[in-house]
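Project outcomes to date are best conveyed with an example. Our students and postdoctoral researchers have been running inverse folding experiments weekly, and each run begins with a structure described purely in tokens. The record below, which covers 471 residues, was selected by the lab manager from last quarter's runs and is presented without edits.
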């Protein structure tokens, strides 16, 4: 390949120049409050202290050394964080945006972020994507949902097993949005000494970054599954009744295919399940919408539409792809690892699947206001959208432990009929929404809630869970 002239910013702790082949392009320290100072003075990254005693290289220094081992000509810049917080990471990413950094390597992150923290990260990652910057980040070594690694427009990296002979491999759709696995154990040389690095997702990131540098367009196209959850969408299709969408998917307008204008400046669309009959219109919308970034397809899409999305760098999501990938994952060799559930599981049923979803979303919103997180699992394909998870009823005991482990929610709602409850051993509480009752009642572990419920019923249910299952 030609000599690489771009700077790669490593967002980590401070990097020591003493361990690197090339001179650092820059070295700054970023703080929670947004301050940015010269980090070479205040945040040492290893090397030799004033007494002449050798120090252990910092985490950031080790990541930089791995990068240089695979890309000796790399121009590396150090962005040292005051601490591993979402605010610090967001401030560092804004610094990269304002300084035109096109390659950003992050071997740290957080798990179980708040929706507010996710919103802040989403905004800056979207801006970096629009400026053609590429972010490569590590999945947590605990194999949990990690920010920013699992976000759209971020290449998520996991270390390959030590027995693997593959140095780098793109992998398919999966629950955590992992895009690739790479070699995560290395032996580094410094001043005739060897430094052996244990297998870690952190040390796999530099290997993936090198692949991104070699072919940035190819590797960035693999982040095409996880939908952008904070956009305002235009829903295009036949609207015979209000469409029930899970939380974090906001629709600002509903229109029919034939009513869509020839040119548009909208950034996000949902196409209904009849899109195959309107393929030419869909292709034209994708091709001519000036600001289009995100498409959610509720039906199967053709190869020509998929190719148009990739060509326009439109981030697209196809429901069937996710369902097939999830089913394969649940029935595969990984599913046996997660047998434990650390939160109450609530089965929700009523005379209507839409009523079930409505209550679950209301409860999720109410619980979030009180500081609790909630995940929703539906066994009805037609109701599955981002913000909820889907699986077939007979796979619930495989998916529930996965959701508990990956997302660490305070509670999990399972939506479905009476037969669904019989298929899972993890159900703790049953909620029945009763159209013919005006009062809440309890019988054993079943709570009967009137159809016209208020915050009073939501409060009772949340307190019930806290009282019986702890904080």
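After processing, the design step wrote out the following sequence:
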């Amino acid at each position: 390949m030609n000599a690489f002239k771009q700077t790669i910013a490593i967002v980590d702790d401070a990097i020591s120049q003493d361990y690197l082949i090339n001179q650092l392009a820059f070295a700054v320290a970023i703080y929670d409050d947004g301050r940015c100072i010269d980090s070479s003075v205040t945040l040492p990254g290893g090397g030799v202290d004033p007494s002449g005693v050798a120090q252990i290289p910092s985490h950031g220094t080790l990541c930089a050394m791995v990068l240089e081992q695979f890309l000796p000509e790399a121009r590396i810049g150090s962005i040292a964080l005051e601490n591993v917080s979402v605010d610090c990471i967001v401030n560092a990413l804004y610094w990269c945006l304002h300084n035109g950094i096109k390659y950003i390597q992050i071997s740290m992150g957080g798990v179980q972020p708040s929706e507010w923290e996710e919103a802040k990260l989403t905004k800056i990652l979207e801006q970096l994507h629009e400026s053609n910057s590429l972010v490569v980040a590590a999945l947590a070594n605990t194999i949990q949902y990690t920010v920013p690694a699992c976000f759209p427009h971020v290449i998520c990296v996991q270390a390959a097993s030590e027995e693997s002979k593959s140095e780098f491999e793109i992998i398919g759709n999966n629950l955590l949005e992992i895009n690739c696995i790479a070699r995560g154990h290395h032996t580094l040389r410094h001043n005739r000494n060897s430094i052996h690095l244990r297998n870690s997702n952190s040390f796999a990131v530099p290997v993936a970054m090198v692949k991104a540098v070699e072919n940035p367009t190819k590797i960035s196209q693999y982040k095409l599954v996880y939908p952008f959850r904070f956009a305002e969408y235009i829903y295009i299709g036949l609207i015979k009744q209000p469409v029930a969408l899970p939380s974090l998917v906001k629709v600002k307008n509903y229109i029919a295919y034939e009513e869509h204008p020839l040119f548009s400046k909208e950034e996000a669309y949902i196409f209904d399940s009849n899109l195959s009959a309107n393929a030419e219109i869909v292709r034209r919308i994708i091709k001519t919408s000036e600001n289009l970034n995100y498409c959610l397809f509720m039906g199967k899409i053709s190869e020509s539409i998929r190719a148009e999305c990739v060509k326009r760098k439109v981030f697209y999501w196809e429901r069937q792809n996710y369902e097939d990938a999830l089913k394969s994952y649940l029935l595969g060799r990984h599913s046996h690892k997660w047998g434990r559930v650390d939160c109450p599981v609530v089965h929700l049923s009523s005379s209507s699947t839409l009523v079930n979803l409505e209550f679950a979303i209301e409860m999720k919103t109410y619980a979030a206001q009180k500081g609790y997180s909630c995940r929703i699992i539906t066994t009805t394909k037609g109701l599955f959208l981002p913000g909820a998870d889907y699986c077939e009823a007979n796979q619930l005991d495989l998916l529930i432990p996965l959701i508990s482990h990956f997302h660490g929610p305070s509670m999990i709602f399972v939506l479905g009929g009476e037969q669904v409850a019989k298929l899972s051993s993890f159900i703790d509480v049953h909620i029945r929404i009763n159209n013919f009752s005006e009062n809440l009642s309890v019988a054993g572990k079943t709570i009967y809630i009137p159809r016209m419920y208020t915050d009073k019923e939501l409060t009772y249910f949340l307190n019930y869970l806290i009282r019986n299952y702890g904080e």
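The radius of gyration is 24 Å. Residues 41-54, 221-229 have pLDDT under 50 and may be disordered. The training component of this project remains on track.
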